[in-house]
Every structure is written in C-alpha cells, then in structure tokens.
Amino acid sequence: MAPLPCLITVPHGGTQVPGFLAGRFILSERDVFDDIDACTRGIYDLSDLVMVWKDTDIARPVVDLNRGREDRPPTNPDGVVKTHTCFNVPVYDPQQPLDDALADDLIHKYHQPFHSFIESVVKLRHDLRIAFDCHSMSEFAPPVANDAGQPRPTFCLGNRFGDSCPDAVARMLATSLCRVFELEEKEVTLNQPFAGGYITRRYGGRPLPWIQIEMNRKLYLKDPWFDTDTRTVDPDRLAFLRNRMGAALRLFFELWDDSR
Fold first, then answer.
1. Alpha helices in 148-214, H assignment, sequence order
2. Total Cβ atoms within 10 A of residue 181
3. What's the pLDDT score for residue 156?
4. How far is CA 210 from the centre of its chain?
5. Number of CB atoms found within 10 A of residue 176's CB
6. Phi-psi label, residue 149: left if phi above 0, alpha if psi -120 to 50, beta otherwise
7. Which of 85, 147, 185, 247 gets the highest tally of CB atoms within 10 A of its CB?
8. pLDDT at residue 145 above 90?
9. How far is residue 122's CA from residue 97's CA, in Å, rounded to a whole number?
C-alpha cells in the first residue's frame, strides 16, 4: 500500500530534559508529564503509513516547538522557552533563572532544526497533499484557559477558520474521526477550543493545507488504562488509538479523493 501523501508533526510529545540543565531545571517528572502531550509520540506514530513524520524527544517545558522564536518570557512565561508551565509551575531555580543566553542556546539547539526540517519538506516534497500537527488536550480546560474547568470535546480540529486549510477538507477529517471512533458529530469540533498554534499558523496554506489535531486525554489518561502512581498507560490502549488514527486518515483520503 502506498504511503498516505501527508506530513505529520508531533511537537509536544518529548520527555527529555538535556543533561546540561541539571540543577537549574527544577520541574519534577510529574510536572513535566503534566505539561507535555503525554504519549502522543506513540499515538501518532504513523511513520509506516505516511510519507513524512517528524517528532522530538525534547520536553515542551525546555523548548516549545509550537511557539514562535520571539514568543518569550517575560511577555509570555509559557512561550517558546518557559519560566512557568501552563499550570504556572516554575521551571527554573530562582538562583539560576532562565536568561537570554540560555534561551538563545535552547532555541538554536532544538527549535531551529525542527523548523528547518519542516521548511525543507514543504519546499521539496511536492508529492504531499496536506499536513497534520498532532497534539493532545486535557479533559477539562486548565485554569489559564478562557473556558477554565469546562469539558473539552473528544477531538478538536484547527484550521485557523479556513486560513490554513479549507473548511470542507477539515470537515472531511471530522467525519472520518466520527466514523472510525464511533463518535457523535458534536464530539469533533472545528476551531473550538483550538484554532491551531504557531506551526499551523506559520505553514498552513503556504502552499500545503494544514490541520491541527487535538485528541482528548480522556481517551487514555484515565481508568482503566492509566496508572496515576507510575504515570504509565496500557500499551494496548495506545496501540488501539494509533490504529484508529491510521484508519481515520485512510478514510479521510478516500473521502477527499471521492470529492474531487
């Protein structure tokens, strides 16, 4: 079977903190786990199904690859590099705070290569038809969100209100997810609560259509699949979700081809 003509990026699934930050980076393993899109490297690992797949092993609190280079503290403490997580937990030792030199170094080491890869793919791979930036979201909106405490849908698709990808194409993906995951239509939303972050905004429609996919963590980070003490997830559940995502993408391309 020919690979699906798409690019998948997974920017928030990494768990690693570079060794040179030891003693300076003070987040606990649990805090890191809470801040990243846990398990998304496995759920969206469709590298054997799609033409191009790109992830990272670097944890989001170290460098957020879905932020612009200039989106930095103190203007945004939860920016491309962070002084605080999205749950307002301090990232660095107050005696060794994040400074401009460290911020520049982290961006150069991790942010720049990731985006250089995307730029190269977009420029050279003319056989691609679409790209997906893949994430997970908490079951309920966190305190910093405008809808704090409110339940979130099972999936949210962001296409920047049509700017990064035509609405009709995004709705085909919504239909595919509903069919494969056996969901009601209301459980797959478009642009609510997420319209698409920096990656989708920067690259979408230039010229490749781009959709941000957010999967609700209630699908795997709760009983009976999740052990809160060890922060481990039943591997069979992750494999199930990965297989369903693959099936949804295959159906999406079938629907898209039929509509042309």
1. 167-181, 198-203
2. 18
3. 98
4. 13
5. 22
6. left
7. 85
8. no
9. 36
Nearest to 209, CA basis, from 40, 3, 5: 5
Please state which of the four CATH numbers 3.40.630.30, 3.40.630.40, 3.30.505.10, 3.30.1360.120 is assigned to the domain occupying 4-259: 3.40.630.40
Q: At what angle do helices 167-181 and 235-259 cross, to 10 degrees?
A: 140
What tokens were used for 55? 């992830």
> Does the pLDDT at position 1 exceed 90?
no
How would you classify the pairing of strands 210-216 and 130-137?
A: parallel
Residue-level pLDDT at 171 = 98
Strand ranges in 103-235 using DSSP code E only, listed in sequence order: 130-137, 155-158, 188-190, 210-216, 226-227, 232-233
pLDDT in tens, 183-230: 999 999 999 999 999 999 999 999 999 999 999 999 999 999 999 989
- Locate the domains of the chain by residue range: 4-259
Q: Is the pLDDT of residue 56 over 90?
A: yes
Q: Confirm if 156 and 194 have CB atoms less than 8 A apart.
A: yes
Amino acid type, 170: A
| pLDDT, tens digit, 9 for 90 and up, residues 9-55 | 999 999 999 999 999 999 999 999 999 999 999 999 999 999 999 99
Rounded to 5 degrees, φ, ψ at 188 are -125, 105
Percentage of residues of the chain with pLDDT beyond 90: 92
Distance CA 189, CA 206 (A): 24
Report the C-alpha gap between 227 and 84 in whole angstroms: 26
